[in-house]
Write a structure and sequence with these properties.
Layout: H1 13-22, H2 35-43, E1 46-50, E2 55-57, E3 66-71, E4 74-79, E5 85-90, E6 95-96, H3 98-103, E7 110-113, E8 117-122, H4 124-133, H5 135-153
Antiparallel strand pairs: 1-8, 2-7, 3-6, 3-8, 4-5, 4-7
Helix pairs in contact: 4-5
């Protein structure tokens, strides 16, 4: 993955928080955190920019990084054994990568920026560190991610977005 340097784009965790709390998307991440807890979460996230057409996740890869979407939208593509493509679009306030993050299985879809995006990522190592130092924040994030996963799995159209 070739990410643009975060210093080329202005990043502020408050913009991510605003995107999440104001999102009306079906699969938005919904965490019951205080502003202080959101700030703590932000210290465990790495911001970066993704260009239009740039691949974020490749189907079949073993990466387990989690991505929260501040702005822009991502196209999720799944190619089945017959070469047919399925598509879902994921936008601000939501997340991609939660499937592999929890399952430790290879990515089941590819994810590409449909335009310029601001994203925040968290590796499993950073999550474990947060769980040790800030267990209430880690638990709330895990519950929020679990809810996204459950919502997506309950919808045939949104199952594709589980990456």
């Amino acid at each position: 993955m070739n990410m643009l340097p975060s210093n080329s784009v202005r990043f502020d965790v408050n913009e991510l928080i605003r995107a999440i709390t104001h999102s009306t998307g079906y699969d938005r991440i919904n965490c019951a955190m205080t502003p202080a807890q959101w700030e703590v979460l932000g210290t465990y996230l790495q911001p970066f920019a993704l260009a239009s057409g740039q691949m974020l996740i490749e189907q079949g890869s073993n990466d387990r990084t989690l991505y929260l979407i501040e702005s822009g939208s991502l196209s999720v593509h799944v190619e089945d054994e017959h070469g047919q493509m399925k598509l879902a679009i994921v936008g601000p306030g939501s997340v991609v990568g939660e499937g592999a993050f929890f399952s430790r299985l290879p990515r089941n879809a590819s994810v590409v920026g449909t335009g310029a995006c601001k994203l925040w990522c968290m590796t499993p190592l950073r999550f474990r560190e947060m769980a040790t130092r800030q267990p209430a924040v880690a638990l709330e994030l895990a519950v929020g991610l679990g809810a996204v996963l459950a919502k997506r799995m309950s919808s045939k159209l949104k199952q594709i977005a589980v990456t």
